[in-house]
Amino acid sequence: MKLTRRTILAAASLAAFIAQPMMSAAQELPRNVRLVIGSTSTGGDTYQNSAIVAEALADHLGINIKVDAVGASEAFKALKRDSRGTTLMIFHDQSYLGHLYGRRGYEDPFANYAIGPTVAINPGNAYLVPANSPHESMEDILKAAEAGERVRVAIQPGGVSEIGFSAMKNAARVRAPGSEENIVAVNTGSQSDKNQAMWDNLADVINGSIQANEQFTQLGDGDAKGMKFVWITARDATLQQAPAEGMGNTTRDQLLKFASPATSVTLDGEQDFTFDKEFFFLFNPDMDPAIIDQIDTALAEIFEKGDIQKRQKGSFFIPNFLPSKEAKAHLEAKRDTYRNVIAEISGSK
Questions:
Q1: How far apart are CA 217 and CA 130, in angstroms?
Q2: Residues 186-215: pLDDT tens digits?
Q3: Does residue 130 share a domain with residue 190?
Q4: What is the pLDDT averaged over residues 148-170?
Q5: Which is nearest to 127 in space by CA: 223, 274, 46, 228?
Q6: How confident is the model at residue 347 (pLDDT cuts 50, 70, 90)?
Q7: What CATH number did the domain enclosing 162 receive?
Q8: Fewer CB atoms inside 10 A, N or C side of the chain?
Q9: In what side-by-side order are the strands of the sheet with 125-130?
Q10: Residue 251: CB partners within 8 Å, gap ≥ 6?
């Protein structure tokens, strides 16, 4: 039979059609990937952590990954538009806490996106008081609320900053019902705004972090900007993994005194409230599962090698890799705990 040009093209098209399912099943991350993050800061912990992971993943797979600090709302929009794998996202617990608190721009990530692997914990979420405050501990603060004293807490509403405040109110409610009304929020913005609220005597307690605020705990007596830690929300087991030298001039053993069980903020009268700020991937729900498998496998190999853990700990992050399925179950369990705390202080479940 004589092969015409049309016959040859038809045969080629048929061969391509037959091969298509196999090519789809083998889909991998594109050569160039945009990694959007839920922060607009290129100096904050979200960017730092994401940059470490992006560099390790790019080197391991031989691709290019650019971290883009666009903020939560824009990051979710970008992720929703792209199911090809050219756009991925890293954020932390605020992705679901924002939804629980009803913040604009936050959907339920478990319903609207695919949850990817966890990669690290920032154990630094903390609460501080002025250096000259009469309150030396969370016990002092909760007793003050029980005695009728108004305690003002500066937070950035709707997420990681607020969940510790909710836990304070819940602990006051458990210990002495009604005293939670004496713990009140001072809604601010960034960390510098919260610091300023303390220095302007607009807040008695502020949400801060070990990384951002430790320097102020080292100021000399009488310095108006001096602070002292009263609570670090991370689990004891998480902080135990931090470098022994701690951060700045505060050692790990000193930091552990402000975390459970040494510092107790009760969850239900029997166990303490704890909160680890965890970073994890989010994916477009229609992205090829083969790409998720590729990322899980690559990260497992990267963490098995061990170099990334050194970089993370050098920036005071705690390595914490869980593959996608385990990460989703773990984060959903956290979500349920914090949803109950929020519901308790709002008066409805």
A1: 9
A2: 999 888 999 999 999 999 999 999 999 999
A3: yes
A4: 94
A5: 228
A6: low
A7: 3.40.190.10
A8: N
A9: 183-187, 151-155, 205-209, 125-130, 227-232
A10: 244, 245
